[in-house]
Design goal:
FAD/NAD(P)-binding domain, 5-stranded parallel beta sheet, 28% helix, 28% strand, 379 residues, alpha/beta, single chain
C-alpha cells in the first residue's frame, strides 16, 4: 500500500512518527521544509529569535517512513495524483493531506500587500528584524506596531513584542514604541471565560499595549491602517509595521468532483477523518472539517491536529493489516495563553467535564508541559 503524507506540521508529523514498519506499507512524507516548526511558539521567535524548529529526518528513525523535501502544487483526488512544483507527479493508494492553512485577509483593501503574517519562520524573522531596526539610532520613520486580531496568536505576539520593546528601550536609551491590538469583535481571547480574559487584558494593559476592541480594520497602506468603530467613526493609525493574525483558511490545493467543503474552505470528513466520497484520502489538521461529539467543527488547534494525526497513523497501519478503522473522538485537554515571560492564563480539563482555571506561573508551567508532551510524542 503506497501512502503519501503531505505536510509535516502538527498533524502530518504526528502521522509519520506514529507509524512503525509494517508489511505491505510503503510511506513517503513530503514537506517543503527540512524542519518541523512549532507554530504555537512563533511569537517567541518573532520577539526574541527563539529557536522553534526541529529537523525532520531524525524524527523518522524507526518509523519506516521516507522523507522528501519538495513542494506540492496541487492534488487531484479523482485521478489519485499529487502534482509537484517541479512538474513531477506522485501516485498513491492512500493519501494523507495535512498541508495546513493560509492567512485569510478577508479582502480588506491593502492588507495582503502591506501586512506581515505569523505563519512561518521567515515571518517571525521579518518581525524580529523590524523591532531591532526600530531601536537602532539611525532608524527613520514610524516605529509603532499594529497587530490585527486578538485571538491566541495576536495576544501572545503583542505581549512578547512589548517585552522585547521594553528590553531594547532600556538597553539603548530610546523611548518605547506604541503597540496597538485591533479587534473587530467585542473582546479579546473569545476562547477564554470572563475571569481569565479579564486577567489577560489587565496584563496587556500593564504592558502599555493599546487594546482596541470593537474596531474593524478597513484598509491598510504601507505605513498606516484605517479602523472603524461600531458607530461608523474612522481613525487612521500610523504604523511602521502591520501584522495580521485575524483569520485563516484552508489551503485551496485539493481538487475533486465530489469533494465537499465547509466554512474557511475546510474539507468535510467522515468519522475516520477521510474526505467524504473519497475513502482513500485522509484530511487532517487545519484543512479538515472534523466534527466533535456535539456536531460542531473541531477547532484548528495544535492539540487537535496532533490527536488527528496520531489516530490517522494508527488507522493507516490498520488498513495495511486489513483491520477495522477506529473513529475520531476529539477531546480538549485545555487551553493556555502565553502572556510573556513566566506569565500565562488558561484552563485544564478535569474529570466529569470540570475545568481548572490557572493564571501566572502555574499556567506558564502547564503550557510548557503541553509543549513538552507534544515534543516527546514525536521524538
Amino acid at each position: 500500500m503506497k501512502t503519501l503524507i503531505l505536510g509535516a506540521g502538527y498533524a502530518g508529523l504526528a502521522v509519520a512518527t506514529q507509524l512503525k514498519p509494517t508489511p505491505g506499507l510503503e510511506t513517503l512524507l513530503v514537506e517543503q521544509n527540512s524542519y518541523h516548526t512549532f507554530e504555537t511558539r512563533l511569537h517567541e521567535a518573532a520577539a526574541h529569535n527563539t529557536r522553534v524548529t526541529l529537523p525532520i529526518i531524525p524524527l523518522l528513525k524507526g518509523t519506516g517512513v521516507h522523507f522528501e523535501q519538495a513542494q506540492v502544487e496541487s492534488v487531484n483526488i479523482d485521478e489519485k495524483e499529487v502534482i509537484m512544483k517541479d512538474g513531477r507527479v506522485l501516485l498513491y493508494d492512500t493519501l494523507v493531506v495535512g498541508l495546513g492553512s493560509v492567512t485569510n485577509f478577508y479582502r480588506i483593501p491593502g492588507l495582503a500587500e502591506n501586512a506581515s503574517e505569523l505563519k512561518s519562520i521567515d515571518d517571525a524573522d521579518e518581525i524580529f528584524n523590524f523591532i531591532n531596526r526600530a531601536y537602532s539610532s539611525d532608524y527613520e520613520g514610524n516605529r509603532d506596531i499594529v497587530v490585527g486580531g486578538a485571538g491566541l496568536t495576536g495576544v501572545e505576539l503583542v505581549t512578547e513584542l512589548a517585552q522585547r520593546a521594553e528590553q531594547l528601550s532600556k538597553a539603548r536609551g530610546l523611548p518605547t514604541i506604541n503597540i496597538y491590538l485591533v479587534e473587530a469583535g467585542p473582546r479579546i481571547l473569545p476562547v477564554l471565560d470572563d475571569a481569565l480574559r479579564a486577567k489577560a487584558q489587565k496584563t496587556l494593559e500593564d504592558y502599555g499595549i493599546h487594546i482596541m476592541v470593537g474596531h474593524r480594520l478597513m484598509q491598510a497602506t504601507t505605513d498606516s491602517v484605517t479602523v472603524q468603530t461600531a458607530d461608523g467613526q474612522q481613525k487612521v493609525l500610523p504604523a511602521g509595521k502591520i501584522i495580521w493574525t485575524g483569520g485563516i483558511q484552508a489551503r485551496d490545493i485539493v481538487k475533486g468532483e465530489k469533494l465537499e467543503k465547509g466554512p474557511g474552505g475546510r474539507i468535510a470528513v467522515d468519522e475516520f477523518l477521510r474526505a467524504k466520497n473519497y475513502p482513500e484520502v485522509f484530511v487532517i489538521g487545519d484543512m479538515s472539517l472534523a466534527m466533535n461529539q456535539e456536531g460542531k467543527p473541531v477547532p484548528t488547534t495544535a492539540q487537535h491536529a496532533g490527536q488527528q494525526g496520531r489516530l490517522t497513523g494508527k488507522n493507516i497501519m490498520r488498513l495495511a493489516r486489513s483491520e477495522d478503522l477506529s473513529p475520531y473522538e476529539p477531546t480538549s485537554l485545555g487551553e493556555f495563553v502565553s502572556l510573556g515571560g513566566l506569565m500565562a492564563v488558561g484552563w485544564m480539563k478535569l474529570p466529569w467535564n470540570q475545568k481548572l482555571a490557572m493564571t501566572g506561573g502555574m499556567a506558564h508551567v502547564m503550557k510548557k508541559a503541553s509543549e513538552w508532551k507534544w515534543r516527546s510524542s514525536i521524538e
